[in-house]
Design a protein that fits this description.
Elements (H helix, E strand, L loop, with lengths): L2 H14 L15 E3 L7 H9 L5 E3 L8 H5 L9 H8 L23 E2 L4 E3 L2 E6 L34 E3 L4 E3 L5 E6 L4 E2 L10 H18 L10 H13 L3 H20 L16 H19 L2 H4 L10 H13 L5
Parallel strand pairs: 1-2
Antiparallel strand pairs: 2-7, 3-8, 4-9, 5-6, 5-8
Catalytic activity: L-lysyl-[protein] + 2-oxoglutarate + O2 = 4-hydroxy-L-lysyl-[protein] + succinate + CO2
Protein name: Jumonji domain-containing protein 4
GO molecular function: 2-oxoglutarate-dependent dioxygenase activity; sequence-specific DNA binding
Length: about 325
C-alpha cells in the first residue's frame, strides 16, 4: 500500500464519521471480470473492491501457475481422486483438527452449498448484497436452502445476480454477502476467509449482533442464572467460534504485529510502496482501524462485564499504545 492509497482509504472511513456502512447494500448491475494479472495491482483491488465491499471475478490467468491446477485434475479436467486420495487421504500424523468433522467432501455434479473461491471446474454463484437476504427469511428467521427455488425468484424478494465461474477462476465475495453456489460439474473448491482493516468494524458489529441473539434466547434465566453474562459469552463462542474475550486477543495479536513497523519509523520517513506485502503504510492503516474498533469495544457494556484482570496489556493500555503510535505518523 502506498501513501495515496492509505489516504484514499482513510478518507473513505472519515466520510462514514464513525458509522458503519448501511446494513442494506444495493445490488450491482454486473460483476467485474479481472482478466490480466500484469495490469491489475493490489492497490487496484483494494480501492475498487475490498474497500467498497463489492464482488469481482479473477480470470484463470491468476491461478495459471498454481500446482493444484495441474496435479489435482486429470488431463480431461476432472478432479483426480486417485491422486488426492494417495497424497491427502490419510494424514501422516493428526496434530490439529480445525473443526469437528471427519471428511471434507468434494462437490459432485449438481451439488452445492446453500450459503459459500472455486478454482477447478465450473460453478454458478447466486450472491446477495448485504441486507438483501432479509426478504428471504421465514417466520422463524431462517434462510431458505435454495434461493433459486421458484417461490424465491420474484424480483421484489431479491434482485437477480448470477455469476458463472469457470475452471481456475476466483470469485471475491465481499464481507456480509450471503451466497449460494451450484456445482455444474465435479468441483474442488478452495476457500479463504479473512478479516482485514476494511471489514473489521463489520466483524465487531456481527459479534454484537450474535451476542444479542444469544441473550434474547436465554433471557428468561437472566435473573436466576448465576453469572448469566458469562454464560452468554460461552454460548456465543460455541455458536460463532469466538466471543468478546477472544476478539480482543485477536485485535491484540494483529496490533502487536503492526506496531513495530510503525514505531521504527519517524515522521516523514514512511516510504511509498506498491507491494502487496505488509509495509509501513498498510500497518498504519490497520492500526487506525484497530484503534477505532477497540475504542468501541472498551466502552461496550457487555465487554465491560468480561473479566479482563489477566489481560496483558489491558485493553485501555493497548488503545493508548495505538493512539500514540498513530500520533507519530505523518498526518494526512
Amino acid at each position: 500500500m502506498d501513501r495515496e492509497t492509505r489516504e484514499f482509504a482513510e478518507s473513505h472511513f472519515r466520510g462514514l464519521q464513525g458509522r458503519l456502512p448501511s446494513k442494506v447494500s444495493p445490488t450491482p448491475d454486473r460483476v467485474d471480470f479481472i482478466e490480466k494479472p500484469d495490469s491489475f495491482s493490489y492497490t487496484d483491488f483494494f480501492k475498487s473492491y475490498l474497500l467498497p465491499n463489492v464482488p469481482c471475478v479473477f480470470s484463470s490467468a491468476f491461478t495459471e501457475h498454481w500446482g493444484c491446477r495441474k496435479r489435482w485434475v486429470t488431463p480431461s479436467g476432472k478432479p483426480d481422486f486417485d491422486h488426492l486420495l494417495q497424497n491427502y487421504g490419510t494424514p501422516l500424523q493428526r496434530t490439529y483438527s480445525p473443526c469437528p468433522c471427519t471428511s471434507r467432501p468434494t462437490g459432485s455434479t449438481s451439488t452445492g452449498t446453500p450459503w459459500m473461491w472455486t478454482t477447478t471446474v465450473s460453478s454458478t454463484w447466486d450472491p446477495l448484497a448485504p441486507g438483501q437476504e432479509e426478504a428471504l427469511r421465514d417466520s422463524h428467521g431462517g434462510l431458505p436452502y435454495d434461493v433459486t427455488a421458484p417461490e424465491f425468484l420474484e424480483s421484489h424478494l431479491h434482485p437477480v445476480l448470477e455469476v458463472t465461474q469457470e475452471a481456475g477462476e476466483m470469485v471475491f465475495v465481499p464481507s456480509g454477502w450471503h451466497h449460494q453456489v451450484h456445482n455444474l460439474e465435479d468441483t474442488i473448491s478452495i476457500n479463504h476467509n479473512w478479516i482485514n482493516g476494511c471489514n473489521l468494524a463489520n466483524t465487531w458489529r456481527f459479534l454484537q449482533q450474535e451476542l444479542c441473539a444469544v441473550q434474547q434466547e436465554v433471557s428468561e434465566w437472566r435473573d436466576t442464572m448465576p453469572d448469566w453474562h458469562h454464560h452468554c459469552q460461552v454460548i456465543m463462542k460455541s455458536c460463532s467460534g469466538i466471543n468478546f474475550e477472544e476478539f480482543y486477543h485477536f485485535l491484540k495479536v494483529i496490533a502487536e504485529r503492526r506496531l513495530p513497523l510503525v514505531k521504527k519509523i519517524g515522521p516523514g520517513e514512511v516510504r511509498c510502496s506498491e507491494d502487496s506485502g505488509l509495509g509501513p503504510q498498510h500497518a498504519i492503516f490497520d492500526i487506525s482501524r484497530i484503534a477505532e474498533v477497540l475504542a468501541s469495544v472498551v466502552v461496550n457494556p457487555d465487554f465491560q462485564r468480561v473479566d479482563t484482570s489477566k489481560f496483558l496489556p489491558q485493553p485501555e493500555d493497548l488503545l493508548q499504545q495505538l493512539q500514540e503510535a498513530l500520533a507519530t505518523t505523518d498526518p494526512l
